[in-house]
Model the fold of this input.
Amino acid sequence: MNILVSIIIGGIAGWLAGQLMNSKFSIIGNIIIGIVGGFVGGILLGLIGIHGSGLIGNIIVGVVGACALIAAGRAIKK
Done:
């Protein structure tokens, strides 16, 4: 059940990050970026002492991490 919830939260976070960063990814791409973004966001926000809890907190952490991944990808691409 936790894996299904992580995929759903990752999909939502990836989609929101794609909308915020104006990127064009497929549904699968959004899910992957959202899930990996959740890990990256947890690390980044954990460094400054912020931790997400609950559904909304996890989505926010995932969005922050996914936006960081998209920004890093764009920087490397240039």
Q: What stands out?
A: The chain has a mean pLDDT of 87. The radius of gyration is 12 Å. Residues 2-77 form one domain. Helices lie at 2-21, 27-47, 54-77.
